[in-house]
Amino acid sequence: MKILNLYAGIGGNRKLWGNEHEITAVEYRKDIAAVYSSYFPNDKIVIGDAHQYLLDHYKEFDFIWASPPCPTHSKINFSNGGRWPVKYPDMKLYQEIILLQNWFTGIWVVENVISYYNPLIQPQKSGRHYYWANFKIKDKDYKKYTNTKISKGRKQIIREAQIPELQTLHGFDLSETNISNKRQILRNCVIPELGLHILNSALGKYFSDNTTQLALI
């Protein structure tokens, strides 16, 4: 299956996907893309604008995962009590959802944090994330994925955990990299087991749809 992994980061969602798929990852920061490439050397890495790449290349893939930037949608923006400048929500999130809903014929998912406002397009919800997708994602219990030393529940881990704990949680070692904001990069990771769960859900629909089409021919 040809997979497009947009806003790939260091590859938390992709970590357990294996090497049987043809994966293209798009990340705009060279230092982060270099970490991704070191963990997944078989993937094609594109350093560039994921939003534009989706528009230009969506027809070339069977499955698309997008994790657009989330800070302007986060509840943290709403709960800061005016201490930080208010920003417009980045509407690229909804542009991508609408494009995929109406123009992409494959399987897709867009992931983002739970927003401080009522979502403009109804998502599925799992843990602290929203998922817009054209397949059903069964909710998962985040607690089963936590290390015993930090098993306080996922929300508390993400807010309080430091780099060593987050590296243990996600299975990435950034100690030898020059990335300046390691903790934030790790906090942004999708838990690898959840990334695999979502891919398996997508594969179920992908093979189901293809079997149906073959049966009709």
Outline the structure in words.
With about 220 residues, this protein is of the alpha/beta class. The protein has one domain (about 1-140, about 190-215): Vaccinia Virus protein VP39 (Rossmann fold, 3-Layer(aba) Sandwich), CATH 3.40.50. It is about 35% helix and about 15% strand. The protein has helices spanning about 30-40, 50-55, 75-80, 90-105, 155-160, 165-170, 180-185, 190-215; strands at about 1-5, 20-25, 45, 65, 105-115, 125, 130-135. It has a seven-stranded mixed β-sheet with strand order 3-2-1-4-5-7-6, with helices on both faces.
Q: What CATH architecture would you give?
A: 3-Layer(aba) Sandwich
Name given to the CATH homologous superfamily:
Vaccinia Virus protein VP39
How many β-strands, per DSSP?
A: 7
CATH class: Alpha Beta
What is the name of the CATH topology? Answer: Rossmann fold
Low-confidence stretches: 143-156, 213-217
How many DSSP helices?
8
Across the major sheet, the strand order is 3-2-1-4-5-7-6
Q: How would you state the average pLDDT, rounded?
A: 86
Distance from N terminus to C terminus (CA atoms, Å) equals 21 Å
Biggest β-sheet strands, sense, barrel: 7 strands, mixed
Secondary structural class: alpha/beta
How many separate domains make up the residues? 1
User: What is the 3D shape?
Assistant: globular
Approximate strand percentage: 15-25%
What is the string of helix and strand elements? EEHEHEHHEEEHHHH
